[in-house]
Model the fold of this input.
Amino acid sequence: MPIEVKFVEAGIGMGVWSGDITADEIMNATRDANRIMKEHGFDTFVFVIDGREMTSVPFKISTLKWAASKTQTIAYLIVSSSLSANLAVKLAEPFTPQSFEFHQSIDSALAQARRLVKDRQLIS
Done:
């Protein structure tokens, strides 16, 4: 599966994106993230996208808007050097309530995710 979704720690989920990503895979990953995080007791969470192995992402704003509207994610922290990922996010961001941030490494993204979880008091 080109998008593997997993629970990282309290308030933080992650999707590992690899290869060519389709709109259907984004929708399925959104459902999986919501389910997995809810199973761990979190309705609201930060989501890290590891897109270092991703080769392309669809430029369908409607798909990205749908995914953002179907989750209680407060922020997407993206690790990717893909030009297509950067462009897709820049196009979708004005239409979504979540913030998007790009990071150079997984460690940087996870450190920021932990700060956001603490600042938003997602855990006690």
